[in-house]
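User: My notes are a mess, but here's the protein and LXEULUCI's SMILES. Can you give me a structure?
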Amino acid sequence: MGAPVTVRGRFISIEGGEGVGKSTQIAALAAFITQKGFEVLLTREPGGTEGAETIRQLVLGGSAERWMPRAEALLFAAARSDHVERLIEPALASGKWVISDRFIDSSRAYQGGGSGLSDNDIMTLHQIGSRGMLPDRTLILRLDTKEAVSRAAARDQNQPDRIQGRTEIFHSDVDMAFVSFAEREPRVRLVDASGTADAVTARLLTEISDLLEPA
Ligand SMILES: Nc1ncnc2c1ncn2[C@@H]1O[C@H](COP(=O)(O)OP(=O)(O)OP(=O)(O)O)[C@@H](O)[C@H]1O
Ligand SMILES: Cc1cn([C@H]2C[C@H](O)[C@@H](COP(=O)(O)O)O2)c(=O)[nH]c1=O
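Assistant: No problem, the inputs look usable. Here's the predicted complex:
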């Protein structure tokens, strides 16, 4: 009799602009997947490991001018490298599902679409840092900007971090970049984030139903 086979877990990233409801929905998705009998690891970017959480403070704190776009992209890629190698890969290898609040598509949308770096440069950094690892499914929550800003402002009492506080044009470019990924890449799905939290969860579950089926 051979050794027991551990089936690799699934990797889902949740993306979108500020305040669209990612954290709220991740908790609901995790509860559903756990109920289906899978072990789920919840994590976030930038962050998830001690080193990456330290980079999070560096890159999201301080003045708006603290980092130029290329340095910012390198910091996100370094945080992601540690996150993938120390947390995400081992969890998937042990059969856990991993749900990450943001992943590589945030770098492509914010440092690419928003700050003007090329997708090629960002993916090159990702190849070096994380061997180009991509999620099995990426769910992008989309919400009218005014509603998202008002949700985030109510939650943060108008204390945005150095990226959240950027111009409306920046955030609109980020949103357009997210949409363009979904148009080109089947793993990426756009999900309407308006309405009640339960209604949004139902839409998200539709987009991962194939992953929950037995192989
Ligand atoms: N469907 C919803 N309807 C109304 N309010 C919501 C809904 N979903 C989340 N919220 C509220 O909106 C705020 C932002 O939600 P949440 O923190 O989940 O968003 P987020 O995308 O993780 O934000 P950020 O990117 O800034 O971390 C929270 O106060 C949350 O309770
Ligand atoms: C991973 C990643 C994140 N960002 C930005 C997006 C947000 O403004 C913050 C993270 O804050 P949140 O409240 O945890 O959503 O960081 C980015 O610009 N590039 C990235 O790769």
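Helices lie at 22-35, 50-60, 69-93, 104-114, 119-130, 145-156, 168-184, 197-212.
User: Great, I'll file this with my notes.
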